[in-house]
User: Fold this.
Amino acid sequence: MAETESLLQTPLNDLHKELGGRMVPFAGYSMPVQYPAGIMAEHLHCRSQAALFDVSHMGQAELVGDGAAAALEKLTPADVQGLKPGRQRYGLLLNAQGGIVDDFMVANLGDRLFLVVNASRKHVDLPLIESVLPAGVSLRPLPDRALLALQGPGVAALVPTSLTFMGIAAMQIAGFDVIASRSGYTGEDGLEISVPAEHAVGLAKALLAMPGVMPAGLGARDSLRLEAGLCLYGNDLDEGTSPVEANLVWSMGKRRRMAWDFVGAERVRDELDNGPKRLRVGIKPEGRQPVRAHSEIRANGATVGEVTSGGFGPSVNGPVAMGYVAREHAADGTALDLIVRDKPLPARVAPTPFQPHRYAR
Amino acid sequence: MAEMKFSKDHEWLRLEGGVATVGITDHAQNALGDVVFVDLPEVGRVVEAGESVAVVESVKAASDVYAPIAGEIVEVNAALPDNPGAINSEPTGSGWFFRIKPAGELPGDLMDADSYARFVETL
Assistant:
C-alpha cells in the first residue's frame, strides 16, 4: 500500500480514525470522506444544527511588508488594497491568459494579509505569488497551522463572536488562541478557524463536545457546496477558464475593472465587452437520477457543453449540477439534455444557489 | 429459506422455485453509502453472467450492478425506485433488485456466505 503511505496527514488524522472516518486520498492527503453517520445525515445535520469539518489540507499563508496588497493585486482582479482590517474577501488568481490559477480567500489582519488557498493548488499558488513580490514583501507559508470549519445555523449560539459575514479576528475559542473568520463553503452561517497544529485536536474535541455538533467529511462538504452553488477548483474552475466564463465577475473589484492592472486583464476585458463563448450555469436534472461531472450537455441534439459538478442534493432532495454551456443556452429555464450512459436525461438551466444562503450579513 | 450465494461483484442471489432473486450485499451497500437512485432492467431481457443490468447511485458515486448468472429477467422490484434507501436498510430483504430465471446450471464460482465473508476480508 505504498500509495497510502505517501499520503500526507492532517493533525486530526488519529481523531478521524477514532471517530470512524472513512479515509480516502484527496489532493495528496488522507482525508475522511464520511463518518459512520453517512454523507446524507452529515449534510442534513449541517443545515439543521452544526457540523465540524477538517480542512487542514488547505494552504494557509501570510503576506507581510509594505505593499503586500498591491503586490497580490498583480495576480488577482480582487480589490485587496481596499480590504479593511478585520475583513476577508474571495478572489481569483489569474494567469497571463486570463485563466483561473486558483480561487482563494484573502483577509486583512491589520499588520499582514492572511491567505487560504486550495490544497491541490498550493504548490502552484505560493511560488506564483512569491514570483511577483517586491523587496520588503514576503510570503510565509503556515504549514504548522490546522484549519477547522464549524458550519451550520447552530454555530452562532455555540461560539458567539462579534464577527459578521466575512469578518475575521484573532480570538479565543474553547480556551485556544485562534484566527476565526465568519465564512465557509456550505452556504450556512459558520466559522473557519485557523489554529496552531499542536492545538488542533484539543480544539476539535472541544467543538465536538458542544451540543449538536457532528463531524462531517469531504462527501458532505461537496454536496453542501454544490447546493450552495459554490465552485470547486479542478471541477468547475481551471487554468483555461476565465472569471467571466465562471460567472465570478462579482469577485473583481470595481477599481480593478477601471484600471485593468492585473495579469490576464486583456481576455477578461474582451469577454466583458463582447460576451464569453460559454458560461457556468446551475443545472437541475429532471427526476431523481444524479448526473456526474464530465457528462455531455446537448441542446437540440448538438453538444453545447459539459457538466463540471453534479450529484444528489440532500436538502434539495433531488439531483443538482453545474456546468458550462454555450452562451446562447445559458438563460435560466433553457431546456438541455444531459447524456448519462448514452441516454439523454432532460434538464434545465437553473438559478444558483439551489439552497438559499443563510449567511450572517 | 434457500441458501444465499454471492458473487465477486458483491451481488447476492437466492434460488427458490427455479427463479433467483438478486440484490447487492451488505458490504456493497455500505461501501456505496446512501443510495438515492436505482435504474432496473426491463422484464423479459435475456442477460449473460457478468452483464451490467442495473445502476445504483449513492450521494457520492454511481455503480453498475451485474447479473451474477445468465438467464431471463422475469421480475423487478417495482417499489425500489421510490424507496432506494431500502438498499441500505435491508440489502438482502426489501432491497432486492430483480428476479432472474437461470439459463442452465448456476456457475461454479458463486460463493457461500462463509467464503464471501473471507473474500471481503481480503479486499
